[in-house]
Amino acid sequence: MAARIDVRKTYKLYIGGAFPRSESGHSYEVTDSKGKFVANAALASRKDVRDAVVAARKAFGPWSSRTAYNRGQIVYRIAEVMEDRRPQFEEAVRQSEGVSAAAARGQVDAAVDRLVWYAGWADKLAQVIGNANPVAGPFFNHTAPEPTGVVGVLAPQASSLLGLVSVVAPVIVTGNVAVVVSSYDRPLPAVTFAEVLATSDVPGGVVNILTGDAATLGPWLASHMDVNAIDLVGVAGAPEMATSLEIAAADNLKRVRRAPAAEPDWALDPDLSAMTAFVEQKTVWHPIGI
C-alpha cells in the first residue's frame, strides 16, 4: 500500500462565530516542542483585530442581558463539549508543550474543572461582592456588579490550554465579551478551543480568538477606542512592552489587568480576582416607601 501524503492543515481565526482567513492572507508555521511541523496558523492583522472588536461589541448587549444563571449554563456546556473532545485537546497540549501524555491529561482535566468552577460562580458573584449598604437617611442603597464590556485578552504564552481557559472563562461568565490573542508558538489548543465554542451554546462574537503575535496585535487592542478593558498576562516578563500597552490603554481609560513579572502557576486554585477585575460596581439609591 502506497504511503499517504500528509494533509497539512491551515487553521483559521475565530471571529463572530465564524472561521475566516486572516484579512492579510498570511499564515505561519506551527511546530511541536521538537521543532517538527504540525500545521499552519492564520497570522491575524490589524483589520482582523478591528473585525473581532466589532463582532464582540455586537454580541455584548445580548450576552450581558442574559441571566447570570444562563451564562453559567453555557460555560458549563463548554466544559461538557471539551470533555467529549478530550483526545484532541490532550494531543494538542502534548505537541505544543512537550509534556508527557499523563501531564497533558492532567492539564485537560484542570481546564475542564476550571470551566465548571467559573460556571458555578456565575449567579453567586453578585451576592458575594455586592452589598445592601447602610446609609444615614430614608433610602435603600444597593451596590451590584455590572460587566465592563469588550475585553481584550493577551493569553498566556506558555500554558496554551489551562492558562487560556483561566483568563477567558472569568471574562465571559461575568457578562463581558472577549477578543483573545492566543499563544504565538502554541496556538493549537486555542484553535481547538474555538471549535468547541462554535459547537457549544456560546453566541457568536462572545469569544473571538486571533492567532498571531501579542507584540504586534497587543498595541492595536490596547489603543482601540471601543475596547473597554485589557488583560496583559500574555506579555508577562516583558515590562517595557507591558508599560507601553498600559499607556496606550489609558487613552480611553480602559481597565487594565497588569502583566505579572512571570507567568503565573495556573495549576493553583483560582480566586475571585479574575472576575472582579472586569466588572464595574454600580450603586443605586432609592427612597424608602416610594
> What overall geometry do the principal axes of the alpha carbons give?
globular
The strand line-up of the biggest sheet is 8-7-6-9-10
Oligomeric state of shown chains: single chain
Poorly predicted regions: none
- Round the Cα radius of gyration to an integer and report it: 20 Å
Structural class: alpha/beta
Helix content: 40-55%
Describe the structure.
The longest helix is centred in the middle third of the chain and has 21 residues, at 101-121. A five-stranded parallel β-sheet has the order 8-7-6-9-10, sandwiched between helices. It is globular. The mean pLDDT is 95. It is 43% helix and 18% strand. The chain has ten helices and eleven strands. With 290 residues, it is an alpha/beta fold.
